[in-house]
Specification:
With 188 residues, the chain is α+β, with helices and mostly antiparallel strands. The protein is 20% helix and 36% strand. It contains three helices and ten strands, in the order E-E-E-H-E-H-H-E-E-E-E-E-E. The strands form two sheets. It has a seven-stranded mixed β-sheet. A three-stranded antiparallel β-sheet has the order 1-2-3, with no helix packed on it. The termini are far apart.
Length: 188
């Protein structure tokens, strides 16, 4: 019985030609009851989330109390004057961008897949934005307005599923600024 090995510390029994047996009888009931207790506590913690939402909401009672984004409406006149100058004068454009400019670009994951990546555009890497000729029919534009303080511009190819997004905000002194730019990328 030299090959027989008994280890009292780990409750293992080894016999040649037989597999290792482990005495789990003392720990199994405690482990099972701990699993059940954990499952019950977890269920109780999630139970309130399954109930119906309360009847009240955080939507104001007054219909005019919120500003809803209006699509394809003409932006305010002061914005259109800013927009023309923004595309005509490079120094004016640089002065009316919130640096570093938050935005999104597309990076190549591999030869087939592309992925959107959040970026902060820097002045040293900026390329002047020129006006787009919409009269040719190659591009289309969609304006989205949030009151008279935020204008979101979507420009896309008419024949393809690619486009860009720019967001302009009216600052405290009444000056407009570009606050977000997502470069040309495949639209979802």
């Amino acid at each position: 019985m030299e090959n027989d090995k008994i280890s009292a510390g780990s409750a293992q029994i080894y016999t040649p030609g037989k597999r290792l047996l482990r005495d789990n009888f003392t720990f199994a009931p405690k482990l099972q009851s701990m699993k059940y207790a954990a499952a019950i506590l977890f269920s109780l913690a999630l139970w309130p989330a399954c109930r119906n939402a309360p009847a009240t909401s955080n939507i104001p009672a007054e219909a005019g109390a919120t500003q809803v984004a209006e699509q394809n409406q003409e932006p305010p006149a002061d914005f259109l004057a800013f927009y023309e100058k923004f595309h005509a004068d490079s120094l004016y454009q640089i002065a009316h961008i919130s640096w570093p400019l938050q935005g999104v670009t597309t990076i190549d994951v591999d030869s087939i897949q592309k992925q959107h990546k959040e970026v902060f555009w820097e002045l040293k890497d900026w390329q002047m934005h020129k006006p787009v000729d919409f009269s040719s029919g190659d591009f289309k534009r969609n304006w989205q307005l949030l009151g008279d303080v935020l204008v979101v511009e979507h420009i896309s190819y008419a024949a393809a599923n690619f486009g860009l997004e720019r967001r302009f905000a009216k600052r405290g002194e009444g000056n407009w600024e570009l606050i977000f730019y997502a470069d040309m990328q495949e639209l979802k």
